[in-house]
Write a structure and sequence with these properties.
This protein is mainly alpha-helical. The protein is elongated.
């Protein structure tokens, strides 16, 4: 960015003083700057609405665009890629006074943001069941990396169901806001971003993988939640195998990187 671009960006953010050393400080220049600033603000608001469609749907256009205008005043952003604009919006909503009576907005915004991040994440071919089988008994000691697009969540309220009802209505998410713990993954194993609710056992398993635990440790972490949800209170190796197989089939793991040869 050149010095002129830097002072021009400051002028668009409401700090024009340095700009007048680069161009005439007159009514014509100020009018042109106002037009450019308004166009830029509108572009940012439009981008924010495109990046947070579920929040906009829940609040309505008028409320959302007023909130987006306030957000751009405090966090104009410096990323020219509008597809990535608004990273701080979920945290900002938590502090935004008019949103305090709408406690589901910030969690839903986090999921909208996760969808964008999954969409923009690097491509990676997911681990396949054949690749996992080739590792044999050594698989138990392998640290499985999550797919680079995967975003893992656990909420105390039904944010995942509410979000899914709007973004993926075919998955039959509930429109109710309830004090029910729910887990969710958002990821892009191929060309399309996917999302689905996950069980407590699946969350425990994936969280252990995210923390760099070997597969055997991740499987043990899943045992407690699985036992709590099983009618008989008994969960065997086959249940963990089924959980692992289902996650591989979903494409949530990155390929295993071979270690150094002894």
């Amino acid at each position: 960015m050149t010095a002129f671009h830097a002072v021009f960006a400051d002028a668009l953010d409401g700090r024009p003083d340095a700009l007048w050393s680069e161009m005439a400080d007159d009514d014509r220049s100020r009018a042109a700057l106002d037009v450019y600033r308004n166009t830029t603000v509108k572009a940012r608001i439009d981008a924010l609405q495109a990046n947070y469609p579920t929040v906009a749907e829940l609040t309505g256009d008028e409320w959302f665009r007023a909130a987006a205008h306030a957000f751009t005043d405090t966090a104009p952003g410096d990323d020219p890629a509008m597809a990535a604009f608004g990273e701080g919006f979920p945290a900002w909503l938590e502090r935004f006074a008019p949103a305090q009576s709408l406690p589901y907005l910030a969690p839903v915004a986090r999921l909208d943001r996760a969808w964008t991040e999954a969409h923009l994440a690097p491509d990676a071919t997911p681990l396949t069941s054949d690749q996992a089988a080739e590792l044999g008994l050594a698989l138990a000691g392998v640290v499985l990396r999550l797919h680079p697009s995967l975003r893992l969540f656990r909420f105390d309220w039904s944010a995942p169901s509410l979000w899914l009802a709007h973004r993926y209505p075919e998955l039959d998410g509930s429109l109710e806001w309830l004090p029910a713990a729910e887990g969710l993954i958002i990821w892009r194993p191929g060309l399309e971003v996917r999302a689905r609710r996950i069980s407590p056992a699946e969350y425990a398993f994936l969280q252990a993988c995210r923390l760099g635990r070997p597969l055997a440790v991740a499987a043990a972490a899943a045992q407690g939640p699985a036992q709590g949800s099983a009618p008989s209170g008994r969960v065997g190796r086959s249940d963990n195998s089924s959980l692992f197989a289902d996650l591989i089939q979903a494409g949530v793991f990155a390929p295993v990187v071979p270690g150094p040869t002894p």
